[in-house]
């Protein structure tokens, strides 16, 4: 039994444990220390706790109660840890917190393999960064790079991009601003719609999610996004009407009325001209805002309360807030409006759906009942939205259409039309009026005894049975609540025993502690 103002224990690896109270059992070579101790390793690691043991046969220090560690620019607190001196490995238990610059790690079980700079969390693993929160049943976190491999019940909450990534296998690469999700991956992008929270859930076989600082985005990507937006904003119907108006004015006739498009919200994106300064500019301020990119491959499906869809692959970029769908894409709006084409583009403005472009072999079907479908077929189409409500659609090039008409709430007639272009106005999910442009051919047939094949345009394919009607047909996982406030509120260790027993080692620790506290502010 050793008692005194300073009791020192040395091992063969050069580790020194200082305390005031230590018992040593010579039979089994186990030392037990009480009432506070601090250990300094041969390469400068600091470990302290209220109580603990040293087992010579296993070359193991066990620290218990109020454990505090400083190693490799990481501050750690825990209830109990084992330090294996031969392998330079720390094994920890419940309520373990690690601070690394602005990041905070938490787990209830795991280990730190110091030679590999590797933290392994195998129970309740959690990582907090400036912009994200990460959860997983199993985490492998590399201290020197910040990279992490996450397994089982993974969730990543990105507060800046208002998104949630979920999967059972995730490669997290912050230096590249990349998150690769495999094994049941999905992404949720949440927003407020009409003062109600709403989330777009997306699932696929593989999802690559990237967030890149604007100043780091490739200039070619910016130009391409600007060109896509420019093309998307072209309004052939408005151009036609302006040309017609100009022609009438030139002839001295009264101008034809022009349908005024609904007011458009200001885009929440920047065109290339807004992003790239002129060559003679002296601007040096970097745009550090984050831009989200999502690539989803194979068996893509998505759901939001008002819109759902399927395709083989999807590409989304925050530069133009545009999602592009490929591989037999199909979308449903309010369950009864089906949009299909060889490829589809969805354009968002202010986090709301603004326009859907149907490119090549476009087909819109609107379900009236289980038999009757209003149908429009054209080379291309565009559907326009305001406040997430469909208010207009245009068919452009080689238009064929079928519309049903009712008498006393009963469908009695079918109107079949062909023209060059067609535009329709929608209100409360019903067609209010249509306007045909160029060489209209029109026939009206009574529906009674009209063969069903005569009520279908070529290429009609109602795929409503494939529609993911609820978000649980896309994502079955529950959403974890944020722990940011709780984790950020955890107190950093103060290393009172290190101040007492290794006063020369304390100042660098306190300096780093102050460095971490600045991030908390």
Quick recap of the structure?
Helices cover 12% and strands 53% of the residues.
How does this model look, in words?
With 521 residues, this protein is mostly beta strands. The radius of gyration is 32 Å and the shape is elongated. Strand 5 (51-55) and strand 6 (60-71) form a beta hairpin. The protein has six helices and 33 strands.
Features:
mainly beta; 33-stranded antiparallel sheet; 12% helix; elongated
Largest sheet: 33 strands, antiparallel
What structural class do helix, strand and pairing data support?
mainly beta
Shape annotation: elongated
Average pLDDT score: 88
Residue runs with pLDDT of under 50 for 5 or more positions: 260-283
Number of helices: 6
Helical residue percent band: 10-25%
Subunit arrangement of the protein: single chain
Cα-to-Cα separation, first versus last residue: 46 Å
Beta-strand share of residues: over 45%
Write the layout of secondary structure elements.
Layout: E1 2-10, E2 16-25, E3 30-40, E4 46-49, E5 51-55, E6 60-71, E7 74-84, E8 89-92, E9 96-100, E10 103-107, E11 109-113, E12 118-123, E13 125-128, E14 132-136, E15 138-142, E16 148-158, E17 163-173, E18 178-182, E19 186-193, E20 196-203, E21 206-213, H1 219-232, H2 236-251, H3 272-275, E22 290-303, E23 307-317, E24 322-326, E25 330-333, E26 337-340, E27 343-349, E28 352-367, E29 373-386, E30 389-407, E31 410-427, E32 430-437, E33 441-446, H4 484-488, H5 496-501, H6 506-520
